[in-house]
Amino acid sequence: MKLSNLFPGAQVGQDPEILGLCSNSCEAQPGDLFLCIKGVNADRHNYIEDAAGRGAVAALVSRDVDCSIPCVKVPDVDAALDELYDRFYDRPQDKLCVIGVTGTDGKTSTASIIQTLLGDENCGYIGTNGVSCRDFFADTPNTTPDKGHLMAFFRAFLDHGCRYAVLEASSEAFYYGRLRGLNFDAAAISNVTSEHLNTHKTLENYIACKQQLFLQNRGPSVLNHDDGHYEEFLAIAKNVRTYGRTQDNDLWIKEYVLSPRSTVLTLVYNGKEYSFTSPLVGAFNVENLSEAMLVCLNLGKSMEELIARVPLLHVEGRMEMIDLGQNYEVIVDYAHTPNGIQKLMNHVKTLNGKRIITVSGQAGGRDQQKRKFVGETIARNSDHCIWTLEDPRNERVEDIAAMMSENIHDLDNYETVVDRQKAIEKAIRMARKGDIVLILGKGSEESNVVNGESVPYPGDIKCAELAIAKKEETRRKRAAGRARRQSAVSKRNLPQKV
Predict the structure, then answer these.
(1) Do 438 and 456 meet the contact criterion of CB atoms below 8 Å apart?
(2) Contact 344, 436 (CB under 8 A)
(3) How many domains does the chain have?
């Protein structure tokens, strides 16, 4: 699209072809229009030449600048963005069924389940695990990206043949205005517990941000009837559908039987009972699956269609069982809130492991008050804990670990290993037959934020696999060494020929 077509009537001088939009000079690509947004910590007008050096062919500005690429001047760049996105991406949000999922815990799982139930050939996903549909994959720096990235992803979903888009709608996204003006065609919430109070300051503010999803929703609103804050969302939501463990819900979770590798559920919908097996484990995933199914049912899918797709379910980084043939369990999970960790520990204890060895940390620059509760929950439900690095940002890992230990001075089952990969290695070296190694907090994430910089990290799953393989190789070498020594001893004890 020509620059003049994006800004009809504007004096553009040179009229380059615009192939993309960007507001971060480090992300600029050939053919981009660079958006000079004035952020809290940076004025993008100062980075025009950096963007031009990377291929940007024009800039949108709100003050006079001397630069090497043509500029379009508007009174306020931020105020011009919505119309610009609509014109450049051709309003992709109007051509997709946009589903928003929120909640303190369960957003990633529920959104991922919805994508699988609808089919990734039909539904794109945006959230903690990145951006995906069909054979399209991208990363996003935030659980919920800014509107410019969001529109670009929606456009990509349409171009890949999708009809739906499901996104994790975080409270911080509403707080910072990333979802301003976006209409949702369905909305769902899993639960609310205290979280992100470093941003929201009070639980009331936190709830108000999550309520915004339902104020911007024009379709069915799926609520968890069993959640303690259900009434607060019922008061503002429209077209409410509920799921829960009592018969008065639209989707009744009648009963379920948990096992280490699967769950057998019986759900009742429209007066009909359905029993089936899910590969997802844990009581929390019963809720996540029920929430996702109720969303899809209200988008016109039948229960029979959804149950047929249940065997395909897999949530990356959630209750990920690492099985390389070892005689102990290794589980990777993204859980990082007190409520999410408690639910996970409750499930892990049902697996009847001999010991539970847990590796965990807490993010820096976030709600410090919850750290002691997370540490206490883990320590009192584990036989041994290793506190380690987990996006410390500008804090010291040792200081975060000390906060995690505040409520457990009566215990001696914890230690700190700063390097996360070494912490995982140590936990796996400690594991004996029948033990459970639980690695929490990062899931499938492949970077850590240290001193304000994103540092590449293999990911908890890869680190666990490497540690298991290393332990097995050490075991084999020791066994071979013992065999050689035993053989040498046997030879020395053989009768000598006379």
Answers:
(1) no
(2) no
(3) 3
> Where a domain ends, among 64, 89, 114?
89
The alpha-carbon radius of gyration of the chain (Å, integer) is 26
Instruction: Classify residue 72: in a domain, yes or no.
Output: yes
Q: Are residues 430 and 363 in the same domain?
A: yes
52 close to 34: Cβ distance less than 8 angstroms: yes
Nearest to 204 by CA among 222, 229, 187, 237: 229
50 and 193 share one domain: no
- Both 179 and 62 in one domain: the answer is no
Alpha carbon of residue 373 to chain centroid: 22
What's the pTM? 0.84
Residues 332 and 351 in one domain: yes
219-264: pLDDT as tens digits? 999 999 999 999 999 999 999 999 999 999 999 999 999 988 899 9
Range of the domain at 328: 320-472
Helix, coil or strand: residue 422: helix
- Residue 497 in any domain: the answer is no
Residue 465 near residue 413, CB atoms below 8 Å? no
Count CB neighbours of 248 within 10 A. 8
- Alpha-carbon dihedral sign for residues 6, 12, 15, 20: negative
Q: What CA–CA distance (Å, rounded) separates 121 from 125?
A: 11
Least confident window among 69-78, 428-437, 441-450: 441-450
Whether residue 481 lies inside any domain: the answer is no
